[in-house]
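Follow-up to my post from last week.
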Amino acid sequence: MRPNSRGLDELRPVSIERGFTRNAAGSVLICIGDTKVICTATIENDVPRFLRGSGQGWLTAEYGMLPGATTERFDREAARGKQSGRTVEIQRLIGRSLRRCVDLNQLDGFTIYIDCDVIQADGGTRTASITGGAVAVLEALLSVGRESAFLGFVGAISVGIVEGETRLDLEYVEDSNADTDMNIVMLNSDGFVEIQGTAEGALFSSEELNDLIDLAKKGISELQSYQQAVFDVPST
Amino acid sequence: MRPNSRGLDELRPVSIERGFTRNAAGSVLICIGDTKVICTATIENDVPRFLRGSGQGWLTAEYGMLPGATTERFDREAARGKQSGRTVEIQRLIGRSLRRCVDLNQLDGFTIYIDCDVIQADGGTRTASITGGAVAVLEALLSVGRESAFLGFVGAISVGIVEGETRLDLEYVEDSNADTDMNIVMLNSDGFVEIQGTAEGALFSSEELNDLIDLAKKGISELQSYQQAVFDVPST
Amino acid sequence: MRPNSRGLDELRPVSIERGFTRNAAGSVLICIGDTKVICTATIENDVPRFLRGSGQGWLTAEYGMLPGATTERFDREAARGKQSGRTVEIQRLIGRSLRRCVDLNQLDGFTIYIDCDVIQADGGTRTASITGGAVAVLEALLSVGRESAFLGFVGAISVGIVEGETRLDLEYVEDSNADTDMNIVMLNSDGFVEIQGTAEGALFSSEELNDLIDLAKKGISELQSYQQAVFDVPST
Amino acid sequence: MRPNSRGLDELRPVSIERGFTRNAAGSVLICIGDTKVICTATIENDVPRFLRGSGQGWLTAEYGMLPGATTERFDREAARGKQSGRTVEIQRLIGRSLRRCVDLNQLDGFTIYIDCDVIQADGGTRTASITGGAVAVLEALLSVGRESAFLGFVGAISVGIVEGETRLDLEYVEDSNADTDMNIVMLNSDGFVEIQGTAEGALFSSEELNDLIDLAKKGISELQSYQQAVFDVPST
Amino acid sequence: MRPNSRGLDELRPVSIERGFTRNAAGSVLICIGDTKVICTATIENDVPRFLRGSGQGWLTAEYGMLPGATTERFDREAARGKQSGRTVEIQRLIGRSLRRCVDLNQLDGFTIYIDCDVIQADGGTRTASITGGAVAVLEALLSVGRESAFLGFVGAISVGIVEGETRLDLEYVEDSNADTDMNIVMLNSDGFVEIQGTAEGALFSSEELNDLIDLAKKGISELQSYQQAVFDVPST
Amino acid sequence: MRPNSRGLDELRPVSIERGFTRNAAGSVLICIGDTKVICTATIENDVPRFLRGSGQGWLTAEYGMLPGATTERFDREAARGKQSGRTVEIQRLIGRSLRRCVDLNQLDGFTIYIDCDVIQADGGTRTASITGGAVAVLEALLSVGRESAFLGFVGAISVGIVEGETRLDLEYVEDSNADTDMNIVMLNSDGFVEIQGTAEGALFSSEELNDLIDLAKKGISELQSYQQAVFDVPST
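User reply:
Got it. Predicted complex:
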């Protein structure tokens, strides 16, 4: 039995709030169950050196965990003077994924910075960051009248094999006991952007892989409805 | 005229929310006008090396600004690999101040970590961090039944001289044009913990100093009422 | 047409040399086409702090690229004072994968260090590191009479979609033009350890994913034969 | 009774030597009791990026403690690879204070570097650095014929409450037992540049604050006479 | 008796292989006994800032030890985030020495990077790096038709006093027991580039110094023959 | 003609002052011409990890250049967060040299830290650091009654070939134009501790090497008289 009697293919409750803070061009609070992430988007009038003169803009992402987001305090990386390997891995994934939301050729001269800061962690922080980050990207583009550069909502979810069951949207107690943990990022109904799966315990088979893929498709499709809905009413 | 027709000795609207996130022992969202800071308190079963065997506990603080908290993106210090001088200065002030809230002799074997992360900045982030942090300290002590070690609410506010006027609780547009900017921390009605004042423009005189002190006393007294009120009703 | 008229499901020439250098317990030179990696294994009598008293040993991996391994010089990370995000991501993948080769419960008190240093790069350096690293692990375990802790050869290969074709074992000119680039790690004929796929260009579909998986299974099965063969004759 | 029967409002013996070393444009050895600091001033033909084109020059300060300056060796910060929070806090204070000595509008294109290195420490090293630094600033400006940009001597002193007494110019044994420790910087007889006070033990009241301010005025006025006197005779 | 009955003035077996890897302009594997170093040379179209406009090119060197090169694993400096003092000292020596091989005035606009990575260590890695590096320099210059800028082969060897005997080309077991350890670099038969000698045990006398110098002259002369021979046959 | 009509084999004026500052166990100001270095010695009750239980004590050295010591300001290494290669090289030389002054077997449980900080630089700072450091070592040993562990004064001097002449004790204008620059460290009249020579311009011959050695012997012998003389009268 999953926590809260959740079905194997059921997402936790999802909420996405636009305009969460007011100084960034895009600012989103995404809550997926007890996981809460602030995703902001800032647009700067510059591109990295390797793109100067290329006619292309850029999008990059950074990720952080507030020290109080976890039950055991998470050491502040700024104080340690170094981002951990885990953080680096996650923010590279977020950046790669969200670059698929935008047509960089329409953003010449601009860099979009996405900052994903986890204020409460309960599993799935990297996928929540991607899903919320995509909303912040569109909000920021709208704020400068560049929404034509938006290609669609990238959505992301974790799936896994826990106690022999393939499950959608793992929360922390599941994630820490999973045999397989997989993060999947999609742009449309059968368009994969990224798939990262690891067998932490028992190995997984081709058949299980296909089951996990199907679960993820279902979950991401639902997330994309939440993302779309945010823009169907005026933001605060 | 101050922004929003505020009186010279008037605080911005204040709200303090306990139990803002659920994993940390104490978790507070403090909003003073448009400045918003998440303050969490975590208690660990250890003390720094220099206190081992001393019979004393410890309290330390760290401060951060989320990159999207400011209009122009604030570089992530974890990514730069270094906390700025400003950050170091601020977190040392927060730590020194909040250590006055607690009787370290009653906390042998424990370290309280206070993390203050600014999610939206409009002036006065360090004083809001202290004021909110004191609430998080008490909430955390209550969670472990150690509230007897709490000595009282430390409150903090900025005061300054702007356009020739002494003003309470500077917001960003005032702070950036102030001749004098002063941060004051008090534990009770005439008990100073810390005073840090800088003449950014015109020098200030002894008389002006006394006026600023009086303004701060008034403001901190009001903040201490807000701090107390948070505990007069059950937390969520 | 692939370079050197290679078939779509054909590996580049593979050679694996044991005992390549003599000071490390395990030392392997693996060449897959023009990609050449030195993989060494060292066994130390210690475990990381988080495993002390747990009854478990540990295996960890580090990855580096010699500055002269690439056509354009690759900046020495030791001189820059920091491993890049790419390096960190790769060595975490190598470590996770190779831990599946060994029964950590039989290695209490020991840490196996795998060092993978690329001396010539032509695509697929991370998968070559895993495949060669597994050989170094067994060689090192044999040197201390602990081969019973070896669970089997983990093999790894890249697959991808290039010019609309699914291809096995991408070399650099293919990799840099791939629409999809995927690294797959397996322990046995249908046991996946890790799958990491990224759509760099066009998105990939579930069907394409299955084709890529099949290619990888074929390639890894061949690599495992090469790994096994190394131990069928006495090492130098 | 204070050490050496010093009066509560009495400075320790003060000496200020110009031209202490010969390569820097300004070079001062300031001794206040047993605290000895070398303050040098160097003028470079450049301004920081944020001032380019602004018509303004700049002044910045750095502070260090020689490892042998204290009874227990003070770890060399260059070897540790990091300036401590205390050092950062001090050098920011010195820089802010000494910028008040000069009219930056008359120094377009120049940066003055002030380096304060403590060779022997006995309390009050940051205020001695400011007082000595101001002398080095004028010496350096004289060396390039820019003395018209000098606005006056900033002086600084510590005051505090020790054993219930308000005292001027705390030495180390007093400082380490003080209930309140305050550093005050002034430019003229009632012009405050900076005030930083901390209650280390008992809190301080408004009345005590005023007493400390009066002590500091007296002490700084005397220091300014010493600063002036250095230029009344030709330097060596 | 020396290991392998080697004579006091006898080099270990020497082999130098050109074109060891194919991406760098120059790539050499030098083996001196059991010491094996990969030396690559890369030419970039840029010079350091301090040489811009000077009409001069530049040559610089970096040195590294693969973690598996030594019996006890050598910590990876990229992972520690810092090159050790020993590494810095060695690569400065290599760079200074190899700059004597080339006429920098003929290399305006170019920087030659020499990377020396030890894959197996048995004493004398820094002198092997210099000797092999000189070969890589010429190979790289030939690859761009700039061989006229080559001034000759710098050769380097260690000499020392072990068990009261002056010996040529110390291997590790000798080096770690030497009373005196000296590294000597020469460009021609009586032209010294560098001499670095340290008495680790008993002090050395002027007379012993002269004996060591004579041994080094003999050894370097032989090494220069090996260097020359590499270019007497076409490279692979 | 040398500056100040100095003879080719003549030292600059030498002065060595004991007890220069009062907190360190040994504190020396050494002036050789216009080069001035503060050398302090501190004794701590600990040894590095690699010596625990060995019965041996340790001596280590650190070197720094005050920013104002040179005509062009020398960047503060603590602020840059890194010691330069030159600094690391120098302090390793100082440490190796001064360890020859003491019998480490008589210092079990103790580490002597030597800190050499250049307050004014005019060539020869590393050799002045060694010569002054040896005096600080003895002063510190006397302060704890351990002078029996002192083996004698190590002295050091630079020699070089400038304008075709072999010269003793190069000052900055000579050093920066030298063809050969050599630093020599000796413990007694024919006992070499270290020799480090570099041909910056023309190569040097065996014969020139011998001339330089002779000059150094003469200079070091004189320096050892200065070192001895410091202890022939009571320190202040």
